[in-house]
Amino acid sequence: GAVVSQHPSRVICKSGTSVKIECRSLDFQATTMFWYRQFPKQSLMLMATSNEGSKATYEQGVEKDKFLINHASLTLSTLTVTSAHPEDSSFYICSARERPRGLQETQYFGPGTRLLVL
Amino acid sequence: AQSVSQHNHHVILSEAASLELGCNYSYGGTVNLFWYVQYPGQHLQLLLKYFSGDPLVKGIKGFEAEFIKSKFSFNLRKPSVQWSDTAEYFCAVSGGYQKVTFGTGTKLQVIP
To answer: Is A43 within 8 Å of B105 when comparing Cβ atoms?
Structure first.
């Protein structure tokens, strides 16, 4: 089956520093990747949609200058949390969607990255 | 805009009991529906999905879900749960090429 990996799985950083999270589709090409944030005891909140070779589309309320997304290849998307603050501490999850096949598409999720900003 | 609501936030069952988790969605057009499961300490996994055809969908591990268009529902069922089914279950909906919207999740605790 389709596998999505994330690196790192856990990161602790100081306030004011930047953190980069990688999302890779291991055995398929993903024209679209999604970045979610999951707060404790809450559902996944979509932050942005990343299309290979183009700018990411951010959801309302998500600061694009704060959360930089790059989707440089069909197998890699990165999320950089710039000038991180304690309120950015969360669980970040990426998902990848294979090349479109009509309307029948499935997202495959990565294992998530736990970010703790001190 | 699409939305998903899951009625039960926390369900506790004994082993061998039957399970039904409610999911209702809101979207005016053709939808794709999903149930994802997140076991403790693990990432989200697809349990089953509905795109078209038979409204009764069978997934992994004995789970099934029924799409009832008139009720905008996609309830998840399992006739006999096991302790290993303890997890959080998310219903999700996608309209056409749109993003997937998740429900708030239902935590299932199965007592041996």
So the answer is: yes
How far CA A52 is from CA of A26, A78, B98, B108, in Å, comes to 15, 11, 17, 37
Banded model confidence at residue B25, pLDDT cuts 50, 70, 90: very high
Smallest Cβ–Cβ distance between B102 and the set A44, A100, A103 belongs to: A44
Model confidence over A81-99: pLDDT tens digits? 999 999 999 999 999 987 6
Secondary structure E strands in chain A: 4-7, 10-13, 19-25, 30-38, 44-51, 57-58, 67-73, 76-81, 90-98, 107-109, 113-117
Residue B49's alpha-carbon distances to A11, A71, B53, B93, in angstroms, are 33, 27, 11, 10
Distance of CA B43 to the CA centre of its chain: 16
Residue B96 predicted with pLDDT over 80: no
Average pLDDT, integer, range B8-14:
94
Chain A CA closest to residue B91 = A43
Q: In sequence order, what E strands does B19-84 have?
A: 19-21, 24-26, 31-38, 45-50, 56-58, 64-68, 73-78
What Å distances lie between residue A82 and A14, A38, A115, B107, CA to CA? 12, 18, 12, 33
